[in-house]
Known about the structure:
Layout: H1 2-16, H2 19-42, H3 49-52, E1 56-61, E2 66-68, E3 71-73, H4 75-84, E4 90-93, H5 97-106, E5 111-115, H6 119-123, E6 137-140, H7 148-184, H8 189-291, H9 295-304, H10 308-330, H11 334-360, H12 366-469, H13 472-482, H14 486-493, H15 509-532, H16 548-578, H17 585-610, H18 612-628, H19 640-645, H20 650-663, H21 669-709
Parallel strand pairs: 1-4, 1-5
Antiparallel strand pairs: 2-3, 5-6
Helix pairs in contact: 1-16, 2-15, 2-16, 4-7, 7-13, 7-14, 8-9, 8-12, 10-11, 11-12, 15-16, 15-17, 15-18, 15-20, 16-17, 17-18, 17-20, 17-21, 20-21
Amino acid sequence: MRNIWKIINTDxxxxxxxxxxxxxxxxxxxxxxxxxxxxVFSNWDPYGPSATSRIRVAVANVDRGADLFGLKLEVxxxxxxxxxxxxxxxxxxxxxPEDALQRVYSGDCYAALIVPADFSKNIVSFxxxxxxxxxxxxxxxxxxxxxAPKITGKAKTAVQxxxxxxxxQTLADGASSVVQVLDANGLDAETxxxxxxxxxxxxxxxxxxxxxxxxxxxxxxxSASHLMDASARLTxxxxxxxxxxxxxxxxxxxxxxxxxxxxxxxxxxLEEAVLLVNGNLSDFLKKVSDATxxxxxxxxxxxxxxxxxxRKNLTELQKGxxxxxxxxxxxxxxxxxxxxxxxxxDLGSLNQDLKTAVExxxxxxxxxxxTGVHVASGALGNLTDSVTEASVLLGEWINQALTRIEAAAGxxxxxxxxxxDTMKGLxxxxxxLSSSMMNVRSGVLDTKAEIxxxxxxxxxxxxxxxxxxxxxxxxxxxxxxxxxxxxxxxxLASPLKVSDEVLYPAEPYGTQMAPFYTVLALWVGALFCGxxxxxxxxxxxxxxxxxxxxxYIGRYVLFLCCALLQAVITVSGVLxxxxxxxxxxxxxxxxxxxSGICFITINYVLSFTLGSAGLxxxxxxxxxxxxxxxxxxxxxVLPKIFQILYPYMPFRFAMNAMREAVxxxxxxxxxxxxxxxxxxxxxxxxxxxxxxxxxxxxxxxLEKSKQATxxxx
Length: 713
């Protein structure tokens, strides 16, 4: 302990016995303080209007304006007026865009804002449903200064706010004018909205009619498609039939002579058949007539001759006569048809009389049966005569008709073949038309779906307008608009207000930067001490039996005193001379003293154990901490390596303790950071003792090599 006091006394005597040494030490304590003070001053308020107003930004306006609701809207001119009233930037108003750009290129201005000719037109383009985004030309000089572009970025924000405010105010004025015009004409919003709602409902009903019409069109298209398909199949079949008919017509033309002969034979056969029926029927009628001589003879005839087969034949003969009468009537042989029908009716009456006599066993109707036989015989005679005459006429008619058919068969064949080709072509066209009808049906159904969707939206809008028309909200809005646009202007221009409440205030900006520059100055001061003060005691000043630990502690006191003096001067100047806004000045001062102790201990241990290499290490540690301790930028935005090293940096604890003193305490955060710095200092002192001998050999080699160069101290 005695040797430690000897070293301390010797150092004090040498300092106070030499003015030069005293002046150097005072400079050693004051120079780092100046570094802190001047940097805090330079960063006092770099983003305030007093500083940024000296940053020059050129402005050029060539906007031609636009019309909105009949109002002349000149946003570019209003932007210029707004910037003239803005003192955050040093605006330089130019006559042309070329002049503004030239000022940026030459470095006379940091940036330029150019309002294009179509700026106002693009702002109101939404009224034409062809929205064009308005764009300002912004040009900045990227090489003149790294921070200046960040400051001039306020120019863009200021212009955007001006444009938004101007546009919204213009809309508000227009809306207010419209409301005033409506009021002057006796129109109120409630009636107008209700009328509009009714019109929307009427439109929805019209859409119902349109949907019904589209249903009909779709059904018609569907039916038309089916009809076209059926027609295509029919025409295809007709074409085949026509081709077949043409072949048949050709065969008819070729075989007409055979047909004529066959027809004549058929007529002759008909005549022979009638004559044969006449003979057979005449015999039957004669037998019936003979049987009517008496009731006994009639009974005998009916029992022996008039059996079931006879009755059936008479019934079929009656039906055949009537059918043949119909065919003869179709051939316009009216006389023959009438006689044939009379014969059939007479045979039917006679057959019914005979059948009645059999069923009732009453044979007394002899006169009625005899009269029926007489009438039937007369009708049969007339028919036979008429058939003979008609057979001659019918044969001639058939002969003439078939002759005409033979003459026309050739022409008919050609026409049928041509018509068959036409029908084939029509088949293809009908198939294509059927497909088109299906497409029409699909399109109609899609259109109907869209109309139904629009109808639902119209009804929803109508309901909304009904509710809105009677709402208190509408009444309040109309009152605001009727009173003029000023209040609405202010609300639209700034619809959102943010209530700023800074939890740990530190204004101005220089106050926020004071912890960083104070800590940096204290480290620089500690580094100067390691470079200017010797850590080794001269041989002539060494006490007897001086141990390494005594040497280590004795010279450390000198370094510690310089560090304490540096800390007191630095924090006093920051608090009193610079005048930062500090919530807890004494805590700030104590944090500065603790930082000085921590930093000087680190630098002393490095110098004592490693010599010049220790000083180099101290410089490297300082550089790393300046870049990565979060003094200027948040550590989260720094490269990964700095984020890894950040928890172990002494700067971190020193700045955090000073920030607590400046802005206000949170829990034990201030105390924890102070304790961390003192523990670092204690740990370094112990490490210096432990590392001295292991590093002594390396340190001696480095010192000899350095002295051998002849140029290093």
